[in-house]
Amino acid sequence: MSPLPKALRVAPSRILGCGAVLLCLGSGSLQADIESRLDRAEEIREGGNYEESLELARTALARAREREDPELTGEALLQVILAHYFLGNHEEVRSLLEIGFTHCRLHNLPSLEADLLNAEGVLEWKAGNLWLARRLLENAFSMKEQRGEEESMVSIANNLGIIAYSLEEYREAVRYYRKGLTLLPEGGNPRLRASLYSNLGESLIRLENDREAELYLQRSLAIEKDLKEPHYLAYTYFNLGELKAARGNPKAAKDLYQKALRLQEEDGNVWGGALTRLHLAKLCHAGGGTGEAFAVLEPGYKAAKTLNALSLLRDYAGLYEKLYAATGEEGLATYYADLRAWFSKRLQAEGDRALPAGSRRPAVADGSPDDVPAPQLSPWRYSVVALLLLLILALLVEIRRLRRRRPEADA
Q1: What is the DSSP string of 131-178?
Q2: 16 — pLDDT class (breaks 50, 70, 90)
Q3: 300 to each of 36, 96, 264, 313, 343, how far by Cα in Å?
Q4: Cα–Cα distance between 3 and 120 in angstroms, integer?
Q5: Given this model, what pLDDT does residue 42 score?
Q6: Helix crossing, 230-246 with 210-227: angle to 10°?
Q7: Structure pTM?
Q8: Half-sphere exposure of residue 114, counting CA atoms within 13 Å on the CB side?
């Protein structure tokens, strides 16, 4: 399974200057300041400082609203969403996405809406809703394709490849990654190129094409080391560990997994650490180190539960089933077998729920907001809307009460 943080590499449509020199006055100066903060927020986030990135993006958002600039407001909101995502504030992300979609529809910003769909698709992927995630990403890709925004399509193609990989459709995953590399301009976005190389290599391992897989993984590693971003470097080490494991070199694989895990724990990457622990424990078990496998698994299982990552939880339950069967504890082995089956059913139920209809559709070619179907609300979103309506009703009652008291005060 491909690591998530690679997936959330939304390529925003904005083309902003560096904003380093603010020579213009009035509204132009404010615009340059906002653009500068957004660029810096993105740069800092990619370096792993999510709190600082969030503060910069929030300030940019407040100033964009002050300037009443819909496009900059939308781009700032996207940066706030991405910072919250990497901080693990997923409920906050969901709430902000709803605000973002409403903003895009009100101001007819289809390109930004596609970026938000890309982000929402990744969030659903992490929750285990693979079919819904795929549909959201396909819609985002279609919207970008209609507008001819090829560079933005690269990130979405990468994410669609990750979904295909998660569904064990490895040839389809390879197709998406190669498509992304074809769309990516020569010399453009080394961060995204490294991701595509690494993910392509991972999929080629599953197709038993080790030689080509190693070529792409080494290319990715060279870029990652040059960029010096430990958050992403960890995933390339993880994929190289997968390669060594597939080649029957458990010692080298273990060293690479441990390198990845060290970087992930230093970076606070809970999901990535849980994934690496799962594969490291599998390696330990295969080598006869069942006790070591239990020790490696425990922190990762706790992390997966806090994240409610269904696909990870299913795989953890499956490995626990094997470990307890190996130790002769049949009761616990049966318990985890049943738990694995339950998680599998949950994932399938999400697929059945997602397939019929109800997600956002891509905008039509002319971008007319009247032709874009309204988003379907999930139960928790209905609850939020209901709460807002109650608050509005209470406010109206209070206004009416105060109006009734005004004549008495005048008397």
Answers
A1: HHHHHHHHHHHHHHHHTT-HHHHHHHHHHHHHHHHHTT-HHHHHHHHH
A2: very low
A3: 39, 29, 12, 10, 17
A4: 16
A5: 87
A6: 160
A7: 0.71
A8: 30
Residues in the chain: 411
Sign of CA dihedral 77, 79, 82, 86: negative
User: Is the Cβ–Cβ distance between 154 and 183 less than 8 Å?
Assistant: yes
Buried/exposed code over 307-324 (b: 16+ C-beta within 10 A; e: otherwise) = bebbbbbbbbbbbbbbbb
Locate 197 and state its tokens.
Answer: 């190389």
Nearest C-alpha neighbor of 201 from the set 239, 249, 146, 156 = 239
Q: Are 111 and 147 in contact (CB under 8 A)?
A: yes
Q: How far is CA 223 from the centre of its chain?
A: 21
Amino acid at 189: N
Residue 37 class from Cβ within 10 Å (0-12 exposed, 13-18 middle, 19+ buried)?
Answer: buried
Residue in 131, 126, 120 with CA at minimum distance from that of residue 94: 120
Q: Take residue 206 and report the two structure tokens written for it.
A: 């599953």
31: closest CA among 1, 73, 3?
Answer: 73
Give yes or no for residue 19 having a pLDDT over 80: no
Average pLDDT over residues 143-160: 93
Per-residue model confidence (pLDDT) at position 11: 37
For 103-119, the pLDDT digits (tens) are 999 999 999 999 999 99
Residue with the two structure tokens 């009652």? 397
Sign of CA dihedral 145, 151, 155, 161: positive
DSSP 331-349: HHHHHHHHHHHHHHHHHHH
Tokens of 311: 């696909």
The residue to which tokens 């390339």 are assigned: 236
C-alpha to C-alpha distance for 184 and 152, rounded to whole angstroms: 9
The token pair at 73 is: 């407001």
